[in-house]
Amino acid sequence: MTKILVYRFSAMGDVVMLLPVLKGLLDSNPKLEIYLLTRPFLFPVFEGIDRLHLVAADLKGKHKGARGLFRLYRQLKKEINPDHVFDLHQVLRTHILNFYFRRGGYSVHKLNKGRAEKKHAVKTKSHETLPSSIDRYAAAFSSAGFRFILPPPPLFPIGLRSEALGLLKIDAAETKVLVGIAPFAKHKQKVWGVEKTRELISLLQRIPNSKVVLFGGGKEEMEILDDLASAFPNCVVAGRYVKLADEVKLLPLIDLMVSMDSANMHLAAMAGIPVVSVWGATHPSLGFAPYHQPDENMIQYRGDALRCRPCSVFGNKKCIYGDVRCMKYISVNQVAERVGFLLDHPLQR
């Protein structure tokens, strides 16, 4: 068996986008084993894949700093002794790990993150489509001589609908349509807004035998979601009932997800369900579009009144107008129209 060590530690969405690449590699190369070094809370996304082994990185504890990374290197050398090492993160701590592995005589392959291309696109406000993060991951393996085909979604196992809905205390027999909404993102420049989410949920009440499942995490987000759910009889907050491992089981059984540019968008896309994504400060052309989703499902302001998008690669820069008007200009009807079309049920006010 050929052993590959892969590391990627960062934002959840970036790690989730590794899924089709690693699965495609293993499906196409039966004599290959992959060891994925990442943060333990992300393990449920990759569990159950034959010959994919998950290795925990404790970057705030025993693997912290150069000394901790050397300890990690020695552990990986002893327990895995990989034939190839792939740095799919390209930050300071992975550069340090790369140094240790190279000094130990290992072959280290790096990801081309396309930083210069993305920076140029932001500066010039170009919407020319750049290679996706998934394509960049795949290119790193291809350049090392590995041949494979990216598998289409769904990439999560599809279980029993009654069992998955039971986790949310939802009666599967009485629920014909299940809509997920993930209204938050890491940066507020990527958030459509609570009131617009409330209006959308109100429109979704028109669908008979429907349930709305709200996704989010953290104390502040959960309080907002609880407030939204309390206003509607057919609305539940997923985080009150399930963890990530259960969310992975639930997502393939949802009929549609409405999401911001966030990890939930990528998770839903990997589950193979329609994802209506709402884009503000960021732009799908920079390489973060959801996997196998059509452009029509990506809702964004396309008029002439704004020439400032994308204002940053990750949505972490303050709006030059101060009001994130790229999101303000996206109406509830725009999102509802696409959702209604995909669900075959008109929703516009």
TrEMBL record:
Keywords: Glycosyltransferase, Transferase. Gene3D superfamilies: Glycogen Phosphorylase B. InterPro entries: Glyco_trans_9, LPS_LOS_Heptosyltrfase. GO terms for biological process: lipopolysaccharide core region biosynthetic process. CDD domains: GT9_LPS_heptosyltransferase (cd03789). GO terms for molecular function: ADP-heptose-lipopolysaccharide heptosyltransferase activity. It holds the Pfam family Glyco_transf_9. It comes from the Bacteria. GO terms for cellular component: cytosol. PANTHER family: LIPOPOLYSACCHARIDE CORE BIOSYNTHESIS PROTEIN, TETRAACYLDISACCHARIDE 4'-KINASE-RELATED. This is ADP-heptose:LPS heptosyltransferase.
